Structure formats: C-alpha cells, structure tokens
Amino acid sequence: MTALLDINGLTIDIDRDSGPARVVDGIDLSILEGESLGIVGESGCGKSLTMLSLVGLLPNRIRATGGTAHFAGRELLRLSPAELRKIRGAQIGFIFQDPMTSLNPVMRIGDQIAEALIYQTGLDKPAAMAKAGDLLELVGIPSPRERLMAYPHELSGGMRQRVMIAIGLAGSPRLLIADEPTTALDVTIQAQIVDLVRDLKDRLGMSVVWITHDLALIAGLADRIAVLYAGTVVEDAPVDLIFERPTHPYTRGLLASLPTLTDRPMSRLPSIGGTPPEPGRRPAGCPFAPRCTLAVAACQTEVPRLRPVAGSDPRHRAACFVTAKEGAAA
Amino acid sequence: MTAPLLSVRGLRKEFPVRLGAFGDRAATVHALDDLSLDIVEGETLSLVGESGCGKSTTGYCLLNIQRPSAGSVVYKGTDIARLDDEAMRPFRRDLQIVFQDPYSTLNPRMTIGEALSEPILFHGLAPKAALPERLRQLLADVGLSERFASRYPHELSGGQRQRVAIARALACQPRFIVCDEAISALDVSVQAQILNLLLDLQQKYRLTYLFIAHDLAVVRHISDRVGVMYLGRLAELAPAEALFARPLHPYTRALLSAVPTTDRRTATTRQRLQGEVPSPLAPPSGCRFHTRCPQARDICRTAVPALREVAPGHATACHAVTSPTATNWEETPA
C-alpha cells in the first residue's frame, strides 16, 4: 500500500507579541490508502492543529512554519488558498467536534448539504437535493427526504453529528478527518456514530484519521495509533501493540491512569505527575522528560527521534532514549 | 449498614417551559419522577445515565439548589427540601458541591486565597487570625502549595482549578459533597490525579459523595453503589460490583455494552441500543425505556415498573426481571 498522506517534520508556531511559540515540533506521520489512523493526545498536544494545517484552516496567528505534507502527490503546505479550497471537502473531508456550532442555524440542513455538493461537484440544485437525501439515508437518518427541510435545532445532537458526517462525505473524499466527533455525545449515541463511520469507511474505501483523547474509544476503530505529546509523536504503532506492549513512558502512563471495567475498584490510579509544558516553554530535551520517572541525562539535553522498538513489529516506533532500546520488555 | 445520612423519598422535579416561536405554548419538562433512595454515611453513591436523565437535577434537588416539585430530602431529621434560603443556610455548610467546569466556577477577580476564605468567614468557621494557617492546610489537602493563595484563577491549569474547587467545598468541613461531573472536563492523566485526591479526602475526612458522571469506568472505580437513571427515573440501583458483574435492567446492559474498552476482543461484540432518548417533554407511558427496549412487552407500554429489590441491595425497575437469575432475556418479545 502507498501512503496517501505523508507528513514530515511539520512545525507550527503561534505568533505571540513576545515572539513565536512552538506548539507542533517536528511531527512525522503517514496514512496509507484505506487505513484508519487514531491520533491520541491530551488538550494542547497539537493533534487538531496538525490536521487543520493540512487544509489551511489554522486559526489567526497560528502558522505552519516548516516541514512538508504530501497528499496524493501534492505538497499541501505550498498550495494557494484557492487550490486548498478545491482539496477541502472534495479530497479531504472534515467532521468537527461540535455539531451545534458547525451547522448554520438559520439554514435548512438539505440546503447545507446541497451547498457542499453544488460547490464540489457542480450539480444543479434539484440533483444536489436528491443527492443530499441519499447522503442522509447513508448516514442513517430516519425519513431522510423529509429531514432535508429541517433546521439544525429540530435535530438531536446525534442526528446533527450525522448531518455533519453527510456534509463531510459530500465530495466523496479520499481522506476523512474526524476531530473528536463524539465528545459532545452520550455513550450510547457515541457507539452508534463510531459504528457508522467505521461502516462508511469500509463501504467507501476512504482513509480515516480519528483525533481523540479517548484511548478506549480508539481501540475499537483504528488500525494504527499515533500518540502525541507536546507537539511531537512519541509513539506510533499498530493498535494491538499500543495496548499490549506500550513502550513510551507517556503511553504507559496514559494507559495505566485509565480506569477500566476490569481493574480493582477503589485502588489508587497510577497518575502522571505534573502537567504538559506550555507552548514557548518547551524543555531543551525530550518534552516528556520533566514528568518522566525513567529520564536519564541524555533526555534533558537531546530530543529523541522516533525509532523502531527493539524486538517488536517493524512498524512499532517510539521516541524514547530509554525504552525504545530495551524494547517492550517492561 | 449504618443509618442513612440523607433520605430521599418521592423526589420529583418539573420545569415549566414556553415553546413555540413566541413562547405561546406551555409545556412541562419531567426531569425527575418519583426518586427514592438513601445515602449512607461514608459511601460513594454514583448516578449514571445519558444527558437529560435527571442525574444532575437529582444532585441540585438534594442540596435544595433547585427546589423539588414534590418529595422530601431528610437530613438530620429535617426535610431540607422545604426550607427557604434563610433556613437552608446552616445546612449548606454540611452539604457542598463541586461542579464540572473549573473555568466558570471560580471568580476571575478573586485570588484563590480570597475564594477559599469566603466560605470560612461567612460560616464563622475560623477567626481571621487563624485564616492563613487554615488556607495553608486546605491547599495542602488538595495537593497545592501555599503560594497558590495569592494567585488568580487564570494563572492555573484546569486540574489545579478543580483542586481549588474541591478545596473550596472542603473549606466548610462538609459531610456530604455532590461531585457533578467533577472530572469530566479534565484530561486523562489529570483525571486520575483528581480521582486519587477524592479517594484520599474521603478517607481522611469520612466524606460521603454523590458522584454524578457519565464515564462508567470511572464510576466503577470509585463507587460503593451505583444508580442508573433513564429519563428521570431510577432504572437500577445496586452495589457497584454487582451492577457491573451482573447488570439486570435492559438499559443498564445496553449502557455498559456501549462503553468503549481497550480490550479489542470485546470491542467488536457489543450490543447496540437503537434510537435516542425520547423527549422529557412527553416521556413515554409505562416504562420509559420501552420505546428502545429489545425486551418490551405490552405491560411495559402501560404499567410503570416499580423499583424492586431482587437481590440484597440490588433493586431494578423492570417487569421482566424478578430475580437475578429468573429473567426473560432469551425469550422473544411479545
């Protein structure tokens, strides 16, 4: 399989009055055709910014300042806004976290989906509305043709997220980026949405990137997981290996601090002390070193690169001086 | 078991709302319907359920932050659900709450020290001279150094703010704390820190928690007993261990089944609940779950199932469940 998207050494800075502050520091990531990649990390680790930078949707004063991102043979970071506009939606679809603020409240949902279709495929209005009805059916909305005339406030949160997915799929993208699409939803509705996107991915043969902070959620739906910490990828591996042989101390800490349905109740959870570094106050060496119990002298001065984990699958890589060498023995 | 700290009977809460473009249609949100339970001193009772199931409303009604439409909440022999603000004040000291969002619960113009001093001075719990020592101790209790007393909320991270919110609840030396989604807004690694803190404080001060949450793994981890709510009613109430090992109500089973798990083997064999929670403006007749229940029969559409104890301490409100073993699960619905 070939890489559909290949990100190399991506850096993103926030322009502050006091000068630029780095939030994404040299991210390497690739996504294969038809693959489902989970990007996991805590707030502020740069997981959303990385994906937004690909399609030119970074907020004001935040800029991609280095690196490359090849998508289907094109270098995304060098494209003009007009060229990016053609890629957004048609090649790369997005589903955002909050369907209430992402939909236009005074526009019928049929018109909102048709708008995307008309722009991306040049259909005329009646054909676009018919296609919009098909899309609503595809995402499992009951009586889809009637719902075309509904306003967002008439739909529940789960239904709105289904509409968002329909809009994300309108241009038949090759890559769908789902940025925490279920965070605002209840657990039973979350399960429905996860099943829906997984099913659509298989039927439509897309690649999907899931951005989430929920390790348990991602376990059931990604082929591969990249763990982000403070704007760098600290571990990248097939999903089973992340859970069976977590290697980077941060990944281990995250997994250990997660209460599960099988652990011993009332026990103290092993937690990671401290907090992630602020943008602009990154430590000189490994960004996790100040919170790491295994840190050695080299961690304070040198930034570890992703390297294959000794004795594991060749696709299993971790950015750690200490644990990547010893392998996943611990 | 010891005597209950709080005894809740027939608690009901309805919110009148105006619907339509000009607010010309009156309607009622049935948020909480006939809830009865006892909260035992020193325990952690958790309430779980989807948005709109009435779990937060229960917490607010228990503390008389929202006045219940009917029912009683007996604390120290007094029905506090009937008290007005003035009469409620002495009880507020004992009954505290920690909210979900640590960003909006602290006054941005007050230093942490001022925020923590306010309840102490208000309730006259310490003379002014003893304040610095009390603040130092409160901050130490929640794992913050005394330097934080002079800082403002915007200088703190989300986890630190939630520690301050907990310290503020502790400032009154309460016996009972409602934790309303108190860790939901926090990152995973910080969540674990705050959970540990809550467990430590409970031991140290013999606190009783009503823990309102939607994360079932967290709930299982810290609860003695768990109540599962659906559309304003208790569907099941049981010791945590029993509930997670052997859920009896069809809704509990579906809810547990929807929890994502890091175990890939179970991730693919999940039972799916179809449809969504009906509107609390017009809750279904009979058992409120019957519109989504795979086991629903005729009786479920007409008769409200009572919350019955089917095993020691394990109560469930389902017509089909009569004992932990004799259920009608495998039969096809009528």
Structural write-up:
The complex is a heterodimer of chains A (330) and B (334). By secondary structure, chain A is of the alpha/beta class. Chain A has helices spanning 47-54, 81-87, 99-102, 109-121, 125-138, 144-147, 157-169, 187-204, 215-219, 239-244, 249-256, 297-301, 323-326; strands at residues 3-16, 19-32, 36-40, 62-71, 74-75, 92-95, 175-179, 207-212, 224-229, 232-238, 307-308, 317-318. Chain A has two domains: 3-222, P-loop containing nucleotide triphosphate hydrolases (Rossmann fold, 3-Layer(aba) Sandwich), CATH 3.40.50.300; 228-260 and 281-326, no CATH class. Chain A has 13 helices and twelve strands. In chain A, the strands form two sheets. Chain A has an eight-stranded mixed sheet. In chain A, strand 4 and strand 5 form a beta hairpin. The two termini of chain A are 32 Å apart. The mean pLDDT of chain A is 89. In chain B, 44% of the residues are buried. Chain B is globular and about 70 Å long. Chain B has helices at 55-62, 85-92, 112-122, 131-141, 158-170, 188-205, 216-222, 240-245, 250-258, 264-267, 298-302; strands spanning 4-19, 25-40, 44-48, 70-75, 78-79, 95-98, 176-180, 208-212, 225-230, 233-239, 308-311, 314-316. Chain B is 30% helix and 24% strand. Chain B has a domain at 4-41 and 52-82 and 226-316: 3-Layer(aba) Sandwich (Rossmann fold), CATH 3.40.50. By secondary structure, chain B is α/β, with parallel strands linked by helices. Chain B has eleven helices and twelve strands. Classes of the chains: A alpha/beta (330), B alpha/beta (334). Chain A binds chain B through residues 42-43, 156-159, 186-192, 194-195, 213-217, 219-220, 239-240, 243, 253-255, 257-263, 265-273, 275, and chain B through 50-51, 157-159, 187-193, 195-196, 199, 214-218, 220-223, 240-241, 244, 254-256, 258-264, 267-268, 270, 272-273, 276-277.
